[in-house]
Amino acid sequence: MDKSEDLLGLPTESLPVAWKIFKAFVFDDEISVTEDELVSYATDDLKLNLDELPAGMKEDLTVILLGYMNLWPGWNEKNDFLNGKFQKEVYFERFQKFMLHKMKSTVEGVYTAAVKDLDKQVVKSPNKSSNSNDGSDPEFSPYAISIQCPPAMLNIIQFSNIGDDVIMKQHLASDWQDLSTTQLLNWPHVQVMFRTEDICFTRRQATEYVRYLNFKPHESNKSNQSIIEDVHHRPICGRPTKCYSYTFLKEYFQVYMEALISSTKVSPSKLEEIQTILSQFLEDVRYIDVNNSIATNTAVLFRLSHLPFIRNKRLVRNNEDTKADEERVAYCEKIIPKIRFVLLYFKAKQKPTPLLSFEHTDEIKASQNMNVILPDICYKCSYCQLAYSCENSKKRMLDHLKNHHKMEPHVHCTLCKNQFSVLDLAACRWKHSCLESTSTAK
Ligand SMILES: [Zn+2]
Ligand SMILES: [Zn+2]
Predict the structure, then answer these.
(1) By residue range, what is the domain housing residue 208?
(2) What is the distance in A from the centroid of ligand 1 to the CA of 249?
(3) Which end of the chain, N or C, is surrounded by fewer C-beta atoms within 10 Å?
């Protein structure tokens, strides 16, 4: 049909079945997909492993899929879409996200059953339907929980019990406090991209949250030997991979900052922001300690702390007979602060004289043009997938966090058991004294 070809033509190669179904729903057409096609949509696009589905779900899979497709609230905005209010990619992606979320939570509904088993105090082996990449730690708890909710709720969910049921509830979060640039750069889910003619890098907070139910609060203090979790090498557009020393980068940044400072056009707050981003990046290079250097085209994922942090919430049940509080189950949240950074390019050209001078930094000193002087700094909330670029990107990112996220509750170190505020930890790259003294011994 012509209309649909205009609006919904093309990117079909990657998701042919999903696209076909989506189109049919948008134009109120009959859906003609076979059962096999629906199953392939579940396995290929939604990445469900049929062998790991809870009992009974496999048989009903197609009915469940079609049921959720029907329920998507986005169909209410169909007319807006047809009138061109939003792009087809955006609309389709929202549909896909909804389906992914619904199917994932249906599969993970097996945890409800697992929680009920707690009363019988039967420890089961790790549930097969939990993804092996979710960081679950069977020694720690057999039950990992995946929680889907808006970011405003994410960190203030607690478990409680009413009668024999375990329920989730929302507690009040403490008031939002203003973040310094360093705190922002080390805040969960915050990504920054820094770009000038000479250098471009991204630095993303990839802090991992793993939530568990357990019989007792978390006590393990298993440490990881290596802080580097993953190194991914990927040449971009055939650019050769080059290696730069920490010292060279540091010298270049110094000259670059001097050039910026000498320009009267850059405000002190902008200078502070740039200086902080560059020094956090340099500190990353020093901290991961790979021959005291960094290579282009290489993404490095590393932990900011050898030991995870933890939040424990104990659930107690009042025992009618003994009048004593009997511990029933603990809700544990393990927090592993991580960063992923990539140096996309670095092409500073050093000049023979004077000592330590670079082509582009000299240009900054001479230029009257703000576009030449200022770097592009783009922030992104990797939780909400929202990016903020332009001059006041930092303020917009801070406003986003303030308006859509809640203050992080305190965390405990799994080794020294001390309590820390995330504000304090983010201000010093999640370091505290206990780690410094034990990280080499562990
Ligand atoms: Zn967000
Ligand atoms: Zn500690």
Answers:
(1) 181-312+330-438
(2) 31
(3) N
Ligand at shortest distance from the CA of 437: 2
Of 45, 78, 107, the last residue of a domain is 107
One digit per residue, pLDDT tens: the chain, 442 residues?
Answer: 444 444 555 554 556 778 878 888 787 777 677 888 888 888 888 888 888 777 667 777 777 787 788 778 788 888 888 888 888 888 888 888 888 888 877 777 654 554 444 434 333 333 333 333 444 555 556 666 666 677 777 777 766 666 666 666 777 778 889 999 999 999 999 999 999 999 999 999 998 888 777 766 666 667 667 889 888 887 766 778 889 999 999 999 999 999 999 888 889 999 999 999 999 999 999 999 888 899 998 899 999 988 889 887 766 665 566 555 565 667 778 899 999 999 988 988 888 877 788 888 888 888 888 878 899 999 999 988 899 998 899 999 999 999 988 888 889 998 888 999 999 999 999 998 875 554 443 3
* CA of residue 433 to ligand 2 center, whole Å: 7
Q: Do 250 and 344 have their domain in common? A: yes
- Tell me if 179 sits within 8 A of 398, measured CB to CB: yes
For residue 83, being part of any structural domain is answered with yes
Q: For residue 385, report the distance from its CA to the centre of ligand 1, in Å.
A: 7
Nearest ligand atom owner, CA of 383: 1
> Do 70 and 201 sit in the same domain of this protein?
no
Ligand 1 center from residue 151 Cα (angstroms): 6
Question: What's the total number of domains in the chain?
Answer: 2
Residues 273 and 358 in one domain: yes
149 CA → ligand 2 middle, Å: 30
DSSP string, 235-262: -STTPPP-EEEHHHHHHHHHHHHHHHHH
Instruction: Confirm whether 132 is domain-assigned.
Output: no
What's the per-residue H, E or C state across 133-177?
A: CCCCCCCCCCEEECCCCCHHHHCCEEEEEECCEEEEEECCCCCCC
Ranges of beta strands (E only) in 10-64 are none
Taking the centre of ligand 1 as the mean of its atom positions, its distance from the CA of residue 316, in whole angstroms, is 33
